[in-house]
Structures are given as structure tokens and as C-alpha cells.
Amino acid sequence: MLTKVMKNLFSIGILLLILTVEFIDAILDRQQQLSFLNEHNRFRELAYPTASRMLYLIWREHLAQYAEREANELCYIVHQTDTVWYIKMGDSWLSYQTTENVLPTAWQIVDAWHSTGRSYRSTGACSGENTNCQPYLQIMSDKLDSLGCAYYLCHGVHTFVCYYSHKAAVHGSRVYAVGEPCSACPNSLPLCLNNLCIDKMIVRDPTVPVYKGSDSSQRPFCTRDCETCEQRLIGQCRRCDCSNGGTRRPEATPSNCRCTCPIGYFGRQCQVTLARYKNSVALRLGVRGPGKLSMSLRTKTRSTFLPI
User: Fold this and answer.
1) Do 147 and 40 meet the contact criterion of CB atoms below 8 Å apart?
2) Are 150 and 93 in contact (CB under 8 A)?
3) Terminal CA-CA length for the chain
4) I need a surface site. Which of 52, 196, 205, 213 has the fewest CB within 10 A?
């Protein structure tokens, strides 16, 4: 009796091992999440013609959970095809499935989706042999503001799914508004980073890369002092430059610029020459009471009050 029980337990263990190997619901780690996110944003910032309100995408965990559910269901749909990879899409999601032993990178997956829009970029609509440019429309829609992605393995098929905040545009309609980059950003995203509309929270995120065109090998990071950030809206993110040999204080920010000035200069940015200030005359008008005005003259030696 004991031997029979042991055999049953052994059989159950083998079955569980097979299931564990055959079905893997892998959670993307933070670096993988950033890879998918950054590749989407890289293609969006390179939109041509340029987009007037292309939004910077952020990661949403609930969208990643939706993507995980879709990846699980797609696992059981085995495509009969001569190719080793294939694309499928749903209402607000895209998938990439492959039977290759070497897993594709996030760039390869997003590039495959983006490549479906070759004819769209030249005509403004799906045309010719490439009528299924819906994946391109999905990742380049200027209505998107977030996404989440997941991975699932079963029966030797690797399935990647990204779920999006909004559904793509339909065939025949423009995927985004064309115009000067960031010229029509919504009020909630008033800043501009490499042609993408962003907000102050994104500026402060040290993981947000500043891309240099299509070259992904060098990606300096955007810092909150904005010195390494490009193409921001005028006046929204000012530099903190010190004049006349001054040095910026450690606590200084673009909105509260403070400099340590050399002898002979003062002001927030050392922009005032002390000798010139001492030899200056200031005229100030004021109100002393109902119907009464006052005027004061200020020089380097004295102030004179003159009633008017």
C-alpha cells in the first residue's frame, strides 16, 4: 500500500515538473519593463512627419496584468506558419510570438510592430500589399499615455504582449496630429523631451533617458536641473547660469537660481556689478494715502524723500 502511494506521489511530482517546464508565466523585471517602455518612446519621438502632441509613455502595472492575461490565453493558440515569429493584435494590445530558442530583445519586438507601418508613413493610410499596419497605428497613436507588457511560455512558444491605455486609430485615419513637436501638448504635460510631451514628475525621474536620434548606444540621462535635457518648451525649464565668474550653489535649481559671486559682483546670478550699482540713482514712486503720492531718490550715499 505504501509503495503504491509513493508511486502516485512520484507520478504527480513528474507531472508538476513537466507543467512547470512547459508553462512559465514570467514577470518582467524592472530592466525589461524599462526596455519595452524606452523602445516605444524611441520610435514615438522619431515620428515623421513630426507630431504636435505625441505623449511620453509611462508604465502602468494594471496594464501589465491585462497583458499577462492575454499572453496566457494566446499560449493555447498555436499558429501554423512557415515563419518562426508572428504578430497578433486585439482591441488594445499587441503580441509577438516566436519558437526560436534565442529570445528576441525588446527592440526587435517593438521594431517588428513598427515596421508594419511602412506604407502608412508614405501615404497616411494603410495601402498596397501591407494593409495590416494596425500594430504601427497602435504604438504611434498620440492618444496613448501608458502601457504594460508581459511574457508567457508554453509548448515551446514564447509569447510577448503589450497592453495599451487606448485603442489605436482605425484604417484610413491619421494616427497622430502633424505639426511642430510639442506645439500642442496638453496642459497636464507642459514640458517637452525629445519631441514628446512630459510633466515635471517625468523630469525628476532619473531613469528617463534622453535619446540622441536613432543611436541607442549613447543615452545620457535627464536630470532635474534640466542641463542635459533638450527641446523643452521655452520658459518651462530654465538653465541656472552664473555671470561674471560666479559659481552655482549646490542647492540651486532652475526655478530658484542662486550663485556664489566673486568680489565686485552680486545678484542671484552675479549679474550686477557692485561699482556700477554704487554710482547709480534709483527713482521710486509710491502712495502715502488717499490722493497722496510720494517719490524717493536713492543714491549710494543717501535717500531723499520728496512729497508730491
Assistant:
1) yes
2) no
3) 115
4) 213
How many other CB atoms sit within 10 Å of the CB of residue 300? 10
Question: How do the domains of the chain map onto residue ranges?
Answer: 18-203
SS3 per-residue string spanning the chain: CHHHHHHHHHHHHHHHHHHHHHEEEECCCHHHHHHHHHHHHHHHHCCCCCECCCECCEECHHHHHHHHHHHHHHCCCCCCCCCCEEEEECCCEEEEEECCCCCCCHHHHHHHHHHHHHHHHHHCCCECCECCCHHHHHHCCCCCCEEEEEEEEECCEEEEEEEECCCCCCCCCCCCCECCCCCCCCCCCCEEECCEEECHHHHCCCCCECCECCECCCCCECCCCCCCCCCCCCCCCCCCCCCCCCEECCCCECCECCEECCCCEECCCCCEEHHHHHCCCEEEEEEEECCEEEEEEECCCCEEEEEC
**pLDDT of 28 strictly over 80:** yes
Q: Are strands 146-154 and 58-59 parallel, antiparallel or unpaired?
A: parallel
Burial class (CB in 10 A: 0-12, 13-18, 19+), 8: exposed
Model confidence over 183-194: pLDDT tens digits?
899 988 888 888
CATH number of 18-203: 3.40.33.10
C-alpha cell at 44: 514615438
The single residue listed with the C-alpha cell 511560455 is 153
Kindly report which listed range (45-49, 107-111, 173-177, 294-298) carries the lowest average pLDDT score.
294-298
Query: CB 302: neighbour CB atoms within 10 A?
Result: 7
Cell of 250: 549646490
